[in-house]
Amino acid sequence: MHQDQDDWAPLTAALDRFTRVSLRAGMPQSLSLSGLGVLGRLRGGPCRITDLAEYEHISQPAATTLVNRLERQGLLARGSDPEDGRVVLVRLTEAGAELLARRAAERSHRVSSLIARMSPADAEALRQAMPALSRLAELYEATAFGDAAGSVDSGSVAGSETEPGRSQHP
What we know:
By secondary structure, this protein is mainly alpha-helical. Helix content is 56%, strand content 9%. It contains 6 helices and 2 strands. The chain has helices at 9-24, 33-42, 49-56, 60-72, 94-116, 120-144; strands spanning 76-81, 84-92. Mean pLDDT is 83; it is low at 147-170.
């Protein structure tokens, strides 16, 4: 069944609104959305500053400035690539991982408390929609970050808690 894209405009608007509010709620003033994105990306493991710049769609000098700021805050650290000592890798520190975990827990608690204020029918509708919304996020991410074919297994559904701005692509 083919549906017109206008049929999904209310869903897109609701997801955009939820994302905007959810990302900013409880955000430390010292942390930008790009900074949060970088920390989330590093949760997947160390990477080069050039990769962070590409991921955040910012210039390499801007990424270096951001990394410097996050490093001063103790949220990430630089180190050598064990395979090539000339390469500098950036990694999440324990403090950075704790910040991400705390934010995830706070956001989960907030969403749970808001759902508790909804009708049982609305809460159940959200529960039933979770697999489809997870799949939509996977497909969106796969096509938004360079996987033009969107080659995500149609049977897989992301089930892990993720940070703002990412499913499993930090």
